[in-house]
Specification:
Length: about 500
């Protein structure tokens, strides 16, 4: 027999899920979550929660991932704080209906788009940024006026249980709940009818989520991953480029980030310069023995450690390591590792790496890299370092990815005016800033008419004259309408 907490966790089955959704739906239906005051109060509560409990969050992230404090405070807490602050500042504008023009066909009339909450939503999040990826969508869902169930990832257990505890303490439990658990609990949740499912994780489970949602015609937002490439042109400030690649790769949870650079493409001639600069900058940042560095997260668990080790141990790949390769299985550490000219049919080039390994592919001409990128699944992000305007234009018009950054990596995530999401295999839908509010709202079309202007031509009997006038009316052109009324129309 486990602790009381463990017993409760086991008891979260389909019946429990049904009753939870029923409870939240009652709360949504009575209008509580729609009120402006409720939304603002809840947003302020999350802010209070992360401000007051920052140290506990940093500790949980250290327990789950050995995440360096700077990364926790900046990429999980400060980013979340910005997101809440923005929502609090903008919510008044976001919830206001958008006035729209109407056409001559409906004259006299006025129209507006009203953002209404979807209802009761499920947010399933991943382990690599367990606070940001859980609470950032929650911010959007609250701002839009929904009741929410959050299911954090069991792969980051300290963060999951802290999230459950803190949300229970700070948030309105009649409308916002956390359910902890793994496949059984998530499956029980997925059996329920939701008004939206927001899922962050890999595409295999994304398919399970989407299939479950289809049964109830529930819309989904899928934040998935992929192999995010970096194209490095010659004639650039290589040191700055390399530092920015390192920042986006090893400086983001040791490569366990959805938009971390997955592989580099560079010309054969320029590759030795890149490798040398990577080596010297990596050594400056993480020392001669990076396995000891406190500034690198560890691999989340032994499954992921073994997955990454398998990539390195594949026959056609093991000889391609030009830097790093050291590992410490006991402490789940893998050093930053660079591989040159790995075959494209290797495991490491077939799957998303999601770890500290960085293969480099070489091409004869840098323009060839776009075909390589487009021959695979559409990535979540793609990066280009160049001073060449034409290459930049080609990159933006040819490469399809969730988002692009020129001359840096990962930073688009921090720009709230840009939507963050994937395309094709890297996901569907987007969030951040107002996009988060929109992701959890229905855009309701509303047309207002008065009793004036009730035109007889709408109604039978349908005469030839009415048909003629109706046809020009539908063109929306005032001149054609006058023409038709005067009998000049050819229709
Ligand atoms: P994970 O293992 O934490 O799984 C994600 C969620 O799916 C968890 O909450 C888990 O409980 C749930 N789950 C697992 N098996 C399930 C099942 N059979 N049925 C229903 N739910 C199930 O995370 P992961 O998938 O290892 O995350 C890494 C992937 O996520 C990578 O591909 C990465 O690129 C992607 N990712 C994307 C983003 C983004 O914002 N686009 C962010 C982070 C990670």
């Amino acid at each position: 027999m486990g602790t009381e907490e463990e017993v409760n966790k086991v008891l979260f089955d389909e019946e429990a899920a049904t009753s939870l959704v029923k409870e939240l739906r009652a709360s949504f239906t009575n209008g509580k979550t729609r009120s402006y005051d409720w939304r603002v109060t809840q947003l302020k509560s999350i802010l209070k929660m992360i401000n007051e409990r920052e140290q506990e969050i940093v500790t949980a992230l250290r327990d789950d991932l050995s995440k360096p404090e700077l990364e926790s405070t900046v990429y999980e807490i400060a980013m979340l704080r910005n997101s809440i602050t923005l929502a609090l500042k903008e919510i008044k504008h976001w919830i206001k209906p958008d006035k729209v023009k109407t056409s001559l066909t409906t004259f006299p009339s006025s129209g507006e788009i009203v953002s209404e909450p979807l209802g009761v939503v499920l947010i399933i999040s991943a382990w690599n940024y367990p606070f940001l990826l859980s609470l950032d969508p929650v911010v959007g869902a609250i701002a839009a006026g929904n009741a929410i169930v959050l299911k954090p990832s069991e792969i980051a257990p300290a963060s999951s249980s802290l999230l459950a505890k803190l949300v229970g303490e700070y948030m309105d439990s009649s409308s916002i709940r956390v359910v902890e658990g793994a496949v059984t609990e998530t499956s029980a949740l997925l059996e329920q009818k939701w008004d939206k499912i927001f899922y962050t994780g890999n595409g295999r489970i994304g398919r399970i989520v989407m299939a479950a949602a289809a049964k109830h015609l529930t819309p989904v937002l899928l934040e998935l991953g992929g192999k995010s490439p970096v194209v490095v042109d010659s004639g650039i400030n290589l040191q700055v480029a390399v530092r920015r690649i390192i920042g986006g790769k090893w400086g983001c949870n040791n490569g366990q980030a959805c938009i971390s650079p997955d592989y580099i493409i560079i010309t054969k001639d320029y590759a030795p310069n890149l490798v040398n600069t990577l080596k010297s900058e990596l050594e400056k940042f993480y020392g001669k023995n990076p396995l000891e560095s406190k500034d690198l997260s560890r691999i989340v668990n032994s499954n992921h450690f073994n997955r990454l080790a398998k990539y390195l141990d594949e026959d056609k790949v093991s000889g391609k390591i030009v830097y790093g390769g050291e590992r410490d299985k006991t402490n789940l550490k893998i050093a930053p590792t660079i591989l040159l000219d790995v075959p494209r049919d290797s495991l490491i080039m077939s799957e998303e790496i999601f770890g500290p390994l960085l293969p480099i592919l070489t091409v004869d001409k840098i323009e060839d890299s776009f075909d390589i990128i487009n021959s695979g699944a559409k990535p979540l992000a793609a990066y280009l370092f160049t001073n060449n305007k034409k290459l930049r234009q080609q990159f933006v018009s040819i490469v399809s990815a969730g988002g692009l950054v020129v001359n840096d990596t990962t930073l688009h995530l921090a720009v709230h005016t840009l939507p963050f999401g994937g395309v094709g295999e890297s996901g569907m839908g987007a969030y951040h800033g107002k996009f988060s509010f929109d992701a959890f709202s229905h855009k309701k079309a509303v047309l207002y008419r008065s009793f004036a202007g009730d035109a007889a031509i709408r109604y039978p009997p349908y005469t030839v004259g009415k048909i003629r006038l109706m046809k020009v009316l539908m063109t929306g052109s005032i001149f054609s309408i006058i023409g038709a009324l005067l009998g000049w129309s050819k229709v």
